[in-house]
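Letters spell out the chain; backbone shape is given numerically. Take this protein:
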Amino acid sequence: MKDLWKTLILISIVITSLGIGGYLVSAQELMTPERRAELERNLASLEAQIAEQQKILGGKQQESASLERDIDILDAKIKEAQLAIKARDLSIQKLSADINGKQKTIGTLTEKLNREKESLAQLIRKTREIDTYSLPEFVLGNGSLSDFFADLDSFDSVKQELHKSFAEIGETRTETEAEKSSLEDKRAEQLDLRHIQELQRKVILAQEKEKQNLLKTTKGQEKIYQQILADKQKSAASIRAALFSLTGTGAIPFEKAYQYASEVGTKTAVRPAFILGIIAEESNLGENVGTGNWQVDMHPTRDRPIFEQICNALGLDPNKMPVSKKAWYGWGGAMGPAQFIPSTWVLYQDRIASLSGSNPPNPWVPKDAFYAAAVLLKDNGADKGTRASERLAALRYLAGWKNATKPAYAFYGNDVMDLADKYQQQIDILKGSGN
């Protein structure tokens, strides 16, 4: 009997030693404090350099159009983009370390939870074994009355440890779930950053090509450049006829795109040129757009079942509908010009239907896609009408509210606003000609 109590006490001591604090593994064990501090310093330096390029860019844009000015603007944009890519690389490194740390923490907590469960099982087995003894057996099995009461005290201690173990299991399970949730958030943020990284690299290539073409065409002569600028001044007729590219459906005349944007803008208080900027940016995301297959490129549990429901409701064959292809950095499956994933589309489809009159709305129909984009942008604050609120709404469109103000996402917002400026100029020409 005494051996039995010793075993129980030993088990209780083992359980008591399984404190959560002793088993947590942080990301700092995978990235030293010195390395993390170095990353922070480098990131701050890059952000300061980016701010300087933005200042140069802002100053140049206030000057009159000239070959030298526009080459300087392109150089500033390219330099800013290159610095932003370096800064984003550092942010991704930090996220990767955090993700590795979270994964290790979850693994350690899971092991701890299993050990606690096993120890609890041993306690329960031993307690049941003790419960099979009758009181006379306890008394007769002890050499003295004092030993008997000592055993009773030990039994009470074991029961207390039993309750404590239950509590620790609950705490460990809660902490494990919190770590898993945090891990998913960090993974989603990392995918967003890689997404922007790829897009910005393509923009840099386009800007470099534009610069080289400009120098080649003008041969460095201001007179030739001014003539090129004059030739590029579009008339209202040419603006109306110009094609506006859309993802997942055919291009439409700019006049039709502006008509949709104006109609949607009236009902949502979101500026038409800004809506056009978002739609254009989403259509510029690269060769992955509209080339995917829902059974391969779409998230299997989050989006595939909903996608099938959307297609069935519209009488469409899901195998024939274009969605974005899965890139190397994450899932695809975005639909139509506004590039909504199915699980987001269903959250907005009733409001889209109410405003557009389409029931059910179709993410591949340009008009419905314009409404979808505008409703989401309105929810993101674009209806305030200021440049800052529009830029922030664009960033929320891409990365959600949590990540929208982080410097690493700035490129997307800046690019959307540049496009909105371009379309506003064209809209102003149309209005000036009587539309």
Observations:
- Residues 237 and 430 are 8 Å apart (CA to CA).
- The chain has two domains: 2-218, 234-432.
